[in-house]
Amino acid sequence: MSHLLEVRDLEVKFALRSGDITAIDGIDFTLDQGERLGIVGESGAGKSVTGFSIINLISKPGFISRGSIYFEGNKISDYSDSQMRTIRGNRISMIFQDPMMTLNPVFTIGFQMIETLRAHKKISKSDARAIALEKLKKVQIPSPEERLDQYPHELSGGMRQRIIIAISLLVNPAIIIADEPTTALDVTIQAEIMDLLQQLCETEKMGLILITHDLGVVSQVTEKIAVMYAGKIIEFGPTDQVVHSPVHPYTTGLIGSIPGSTAPGEKLLQIPGMMPTLSNIPEGCAFNPRCDLCEPICTRKTPPLEKKQNGTMAACHIKD
Amino acid sequence: MNTKKPLVSINNVVKHFDISGGLLDQLSFKGGKIRYEKTTVKAVNDISLFVNRGETLSVVGESGCGKSTLARVIMGLYPPNSGQVLYDGQRIDNLSHNQWLPFRKKMQMIFQDPYASLNPRKTVRQTLEEPLRFHNPRLTSTQVNDKIAEVVEQVGVDPVWITRYPHEFSGGQRQRISIARGLILDPEFIVADEPVSALDVSIQAQILNLLMELAEKRNLTYLFITHDLSVVNHISTRVAVLYLGTLCELACAHDLFCEPRHPYTRALISAIPKVGEKKAKHIRLKGEVPTPVFLPRGCVFHGRCVYANDRCTREVPELMELSNGGFVACHAVEENRSME
Ligand SMILES: Nc1ncnc2c1ncn2[C@@H]1O[C@H](COP(=O)(O)OP(=O)(O)OP(=O)(O)O)[C@@H](O)[C@H]1O
Ligand SMILES: Nc1ncnc2c1ncn2[C@@H]1O[C@H](COP(=O)(O)OP(=O)(O)OP(=O)(O)O)[C@@H](O)[C@H]1O
Ligand code: SF4
Ligand SMILES: [Mg+2]
Ligand SMILES: [Mg+2]
Description:
The structure holds two protein chains of two kinds.
Chain A: E1 5-16, E2 19-31, E3 36-40, H1 47-54, E4 62-71, E5 74-75, H2 81-85, E6 92-95, H3 109-120, H4 125-138, H5 144-147, H6 157-169, E7 175-179, H7 187-204, E8 207-211, H8 215-221, E9 224-229, E10 232-238, H9 239-244, H10 249-257, E11 306-307, E12 313-314
Parallel strand pairs in A: 3-8, 3-9, 6-7, 7-8
Antiparallel strand pairs in A: 1-2, 1-4, 4-5, 9-10, 10-12, 11-12
Helix pairs in contact in A: 3-4, 4-6, 6-7
Chain B: E1 8-18, H1 23-26, E2 27-30, E3 33-36, E4 40-51, E5 56-60, H2 67-74, E6 82-87, E7 90-91, H3 97-106, E8 107-110, H4 114-117, H5 124-135, H6 141-154, H7 171-183, E9 189-193, H8 201-218, E10 221-225, H9 229-235, E11 238-243, E12 246-252, H10 253-258, H11 263-270, H12 310-314, E13 320-321, E14 327-328, H13 331-335
Parallel strand pairs in B: 5-10, 5-11, 8-9, 9-10
Antiparallel strand pairs in B: 1-4, 1-6, 2-3, 6-7, 11-12, 12-14, 13-14
């Protein structure tokens, strides 16, 4: 019954001078071995905070205020810092948009990979170097041997991101959380990195949480999607379902706004207005001021995330 | 070639940046001799193209390929090293500041980051009023107010907000304000450098709709710069594809997306992630993107091209016109090499 990762009723708040704001408002999801989950939504929806909270890396005024996170059956949301360190960067790795958040500019790639390995395992330098080389080959870096002796600044953005993936593979993680891993890269390189991640999930049985605002990327790589809006998951289901027959009016609008969804030159479907700021979330359904289908109940009661006719989960009073 | 007279044309434009720094940095010691070396970034290399009146010409290509530099050369913000820029048949790349003034009214630029391009200490009203009064000193206050009200309404900003400062607006609203600033002088030609790249899709759709609507209402001509190919497909009449400062292909949007000819364009189009399409088989490029400091000989793309042969490493392919009115610079296309 148990899942590789289970997030239950997670709530994350930020303690600000003006009072607490809720960035994540009670979300649930699971991830199994080898499964690929996409988290999509607009800027500020809570995608990164969700990713960070899994490995307990929420920055200062932020804290998990409710809910629990289970990894391989253990309640890691209760773990101390030192317990968490045995998981983070080891069983669960995180890849960021900017590879330099992970790479140290003053050390060679080889040094950083070998040190990472030796921090987790007692092995000789030469064995570590051999493993590092093997992982660089796995991420299909051209001339891997030479890369070991290069510094991060000598590599292109796409290559750095490959190095990061290679580093995260050093420890055979069960889950990779990738937060906008290709947003800073060109499309041809993005396509290659995405191929690589997908392939690794298949061969290494790794779970992937892909955080992005790009629905195109998510629909090509993942098997299920969570759509976030103002700190909540408002739609959750198999990628094909969500992309081809979205239930929630926000998801429908989001997909309709993508230029590829409308014939060239035609007016794009647009969602009026914008996502509310967290300190200003409307009563009832947070999407109600932007929604065409809004009825009186939508402004009074928060719609629960529930199973809809087509089998996906959505949080909407009107659509079923 | 084309029978219509283009609104903007650029001929053989070259723009290189000298990044060698001070004199000492330029001296190097090699083979027992002191040598003087200059490091230049070859951002734009011999590009020629034209923009027809009323069309949207998009310029696409990977980061650093010279899109913004080209735009800035056209707008007179960078002098080209060589080549010409013509506006309505008149050469504008060699004008003095005063000679430029009438073109400033006709040509406007919108930038990616509206926050950086709007003055934080000016209200929306001041931002719009200053260029208007400067270029039209004889306008009465009523005329100025009317003009501001008209433009603000057209871009969908609530007129009661014009006394506010940029930080009080969201990204999408700020982009509307910078579009309003671009329109206030009633330009004919707008260069938009990644105007929607910083925005979320739902807001991006609002701004793209606005730009398309304005183009129609005001009969605007756009040079639209972006790296987002689905946006390009949506809004463009024609598309120019750059690689390492070189024009590889220029074609009408439909042809370019349905039947890309240049090997680089083919790879680019195949890599677009499309919603609802499972795992597109994209064309893999070999090698790494070279830097514009050391341009490859021959075709700048040859190191990454799977169709390259010996000729490609030696000879620069010329831009040639195709039967459908498009242009492509590739030996393989010219020789009809098979590209299965
Ligand atoms: N350190 C912080 N202090 C206060 N609020 C924060 C902090 N970090 C995040 N938040 C708030 O939490 C919300 C969710 O942020 P998060 O970074 O998860 O968004 P996101 O969905 O990843 O957006 P983006 O696409 O821009 O990365 C935002 O509204 C943000 O303002
Ligand atoms: N003022 C400058 N001085 C020196 N080099 C410059 C200058 N402006 C641009 N460059 C260089 O010229 C090349 C082309 O840059 P440009 O900004 O035109 O690229 P771009 O296609 O707009 O890229 P992006 O998609 O990242 O905006 C780059 O290598 C860049 O580093
Ligand atoms: S000219 Fe040669 S190298 Fe350049 S794109 Fe064509 S085939 Fe490839
Ligand atoms: Mg984020
Ligand atoms: Mg640019």
